[in-house]
Design goal:
Chitin-binding type-2 domain-containing protein, 1 helix, mainly beta, 3-stranded antiparallel β-sheet, single chain, Chitin-bd_dom_sf
């Protein structure tokens, strides 16, 4: 009888311990570990700065599609509006992220999910089926001095595709684009 009771206690302790380990390892983790490279465009000349996800004294600068981490000098904090380090401690106060349940995010089936709203908005998945609403940053084009709202394309924030306008004039297509003009002959019509 003592042996059964001792055996029951051992089994109870093992079950309790394994449940404790399961719940300890069952924490919310992002499906995309590492720096936020997905927010960095591949266009080499665009300037993009990103706030660090944890520390207000750190930031990322996008270089060739990669997020490179930098740290402000001692006593300074990263200002997301001016992309500089300043002494304003209020920059450490951030809004809570918008977290929603997205079924396709469970167990990281997807890393990202389209919101169905604007092309710059997407969900960044967590392993437990929840996701944080994310917006692609605005990039500065130093050549023109203009700002470009990046769009989420193929799991990455990129320059939006240029608007292309096709004009049909008989047997020839004239394609106009803000960067080039080309003429295409339609061989099917000739």
């Amino acid at each position: 009888m003592d042996c059964r009771m001792w055996y029951s206690i051992v089994v109870l302790l093992l079950v309790t311990g394994s449940l404790g380990l399961y719940s300890a390892n069952n924490e919310r983790c992002t499906c995309v570990p590492g720096p936020p490279d997905y927010l960095c465009p591949t266009a080499p000349l665009l300037q993009v700065y990103l706030p660090h996800e944890l520390y207000c004294t750190r930031y990322y600068k996008c270089t060739d599609g990669r997020a490179i981490e930098f740290q402000c000098p001692y006593g300074l904090y990263f200002d997301t509006q001016n992309n500089t380090c300043t002494c304003d401690f209020k920059l450490c106060y951030r809004q809570d992220p918008c977290i929603v349940f997205v079924d396709s995010c469970r167990c990281c089936q997807q890393k990202f999910e389209n919101t169905g709203l604007a092309p710059e908005n997407f969900y960044l998945c967590y392993n437990d089926g929840y996701a944080v609403a994310t917006t692609c940053p605005v990039a500065l084009d130093p050549c023109t001095g203009s700002q470009v709202q990046l769009q989420f394309v193929n799991h990455k924030c990129e320059v939006p595709p240029p608007s292309t306008q096709a004009i049909y004039l008989g047997m020839t297509f004239y394609i106009t684009h803000k960067y080039f003009k080309e003429v295409y002959n339609d061989p099917k019509i000739q």
